[in-house]
Write a structure and sequence with these properties.
By secondary structure, this protein is mostly helical. The chain is built from 25 helices and no strands. It is globular, with a radius of gyration of 22 Å.
């Protein structure tokens, strides 16, 4: 029996278990999006934070969670995914443990403005779990054949994205019963549980297991294909990132995702503050509206992917950003509670559907560097979750109470620009053939070899 064949007999995991493990890990890690949103009012009262500081606080987990998506997502082509996934979850555990320690030793009497930078630091560490999204995307993709990748990734992203909405509901309930300390202690326990579950269920695809056991590349590739693995890593992770960066089409896609997914992250963190400060809504109403927005925008992403397959990514994206624009106009101009709720629903629908549509467009417009383009789009696009909340807070601080509503003018501008960029991409589709030849020769040769 050959070495590859003997090694195949000892492979661990299977597509189903690995999908469940990655989904659990992402679900737990992504919950850090709501690390501060539901609890911001407690810190505001104790530390006397202004709106700009609140905006930065609730956005801080998104900084690391966004930027780390690029290098950690790219590392999947070398490691298979499990190691970087565990590193990110461990960093998240350290961050949440640090927050729990601060609350246990300082809250409420001794927690002051001078501890604000430490709070931001631990929040940034806690947000590392958000970056598991790009790692899991790669890990799941390697396990499944192309005919099943769409459904597998829809399951992974759709259910994993529900975490912030559920956290926005459950965490305040726990805090109401046991206090802020207990809330963060339970959060810590959940992330630890998710880490353990992922460690037992999440395995690298066959090719990566074989390579770690010393099986030569060609033999490992042949054995992995025999096990059903169709997708294999690119020869150079850095090259695919550089090739994607060299394509101008990558950057409109980054902006589109900045608007839809980054905007989603920002609102998930900011909405509790908005509903409480602008409409003086009871705490539970504010959290319920935030959770509803998050769950709705996450779950509608699943059928959004099917609509993109059926009608085309551009048409779906145009419709989605039109919904987002309509909702943002309502939220900016309305002073009526019910109309603003309607605007929130329109924004959520637009963001969720657009998230699916954008990733449908990535392989279409950057066909010779799909992995690199997905890294830039997913990483820099998610950075909107860090950039937007401080801007919303600054507008509220400058304009007073009405600024909480007028701040959504940012989303009006983002939606208009996204509609224009989607139209630009669609108008240049006819140049795709020439565009392929304009990519770096190395990437073109790699693409031809993969056919």
């Amino acid at each position: 029996m050959s070495q590859p064949t003997r090694a195949v007999g000892r492979l661990r995991g299977d597509p189903g278990k690995s999908l469940i493990g990655a989904t659990i890990g992402f679900f737990i890690g992504f919950g850090a999006v709501s690390l501060f949103g539901p609890t911001a009012q407690s810190f505001i009262k104790v530390m006397q934070l202004d709106p700009a500081q609140v905006g930065t606080l609730v956005a801080m987990p998104m900084l690391t969670g966004s930027l780390l998506r690029i290098p950690f997502g790219a590392s999947v082509d070398r490691t298979g995914g499990k190691s970087p996934f565990l590193i990110l979850l461990i960093a998240s555990v350290i961050g949440i443990a640090g927050l729990y320690w601060m609350l246990l030793t300082l809250y409420p009497a001794h927690l002051t403005q001078r501890h604000y930078p430490i709070l931001l630091f631990f929040g940034a560490l806690g947000g590392c779990g958000i970056a598991t999204f790009s790692v899991g995307i790669g890990q799941v993709s390697y396990w499944f054949p192309k005919t099943r990748q769409g459904r597998a990734l829809a399951f992974y992203a759709g259910f994993g994205n529900t975490s912030p909405g559920l956290v926005a509901i459950v965490l305040p309930l726990i805090i109401a019963i046991g206090g802020l300390w207990v809330g963060y202690l339970v959060s810590l326990a959940l992330v630890l549980s998710g880490l353990v579950a992922y460690a037992f269920l999440g395995f690298d695809a066959p090719y990566f297991q074989l390579r770690r056991r010393g099986v030569p590349g060609p033999e490992a590739e042949a054995a992995a294909r025999a096990q059903g693995q169709e997708l294999l890593p690119a020869p150079s992770v850095l090259r695919t990132l550089l090739d994607a960066a060299a394509s101008w089409r990558t950057w409109p896609l980054v902006f589109l995702y900045f608007t839809s997914f980054g905007g989603f992250l920002a609102l998930t963190a900011w909405l509790p503050t908005f509903w409480t400060a602008f409409y003086h809504a009871p705490h539970w109403v504010a959290l319920g509206l935030t959770a509803g927005f998050s769950l709705f925008a996450s779950l509608i992403r699943v059928p959004g992917g099917a609509w993109a397959d059926r009608f085309g990514g551009e048409r779906v994206a145009l419709a989605a950003y039109a919904l987002l624009l309509a909702g943002a106009i309502v939220m900016t101009s309305s002073g009526q509670f019910s109309m603003t709720v309607l605007g929130e629903l329109l924004v959520g629908a637009g963001m969720g559907i657009a998230n699916a549509g954008v990733f449908k467009l990535v392989p279409q417009y950057v066909p010779d560097a799909v992995g690199g383009a997905a890294g830039w789009v997913g990483g820099l696009g998610a950075l909107g979750g860090f950039v937007v909340p401080p801007l919303l807070g600054r507008i509220a601080q400058t304009m007073g109470p009405v600024g909480y509503a007028r701040g959504y003018g940012i989303y009006v501008a983002l939606a208009v620009a996204s509609l224009a960029l989607t139209g630009l991409l669609y108008a240049t589709r006819s140049t795709d053939a020439r565009h392929r030849h304009s990519i770096a020769p190395f990437a073109h040769a790699r693409h031809q070899e993969s056919q």
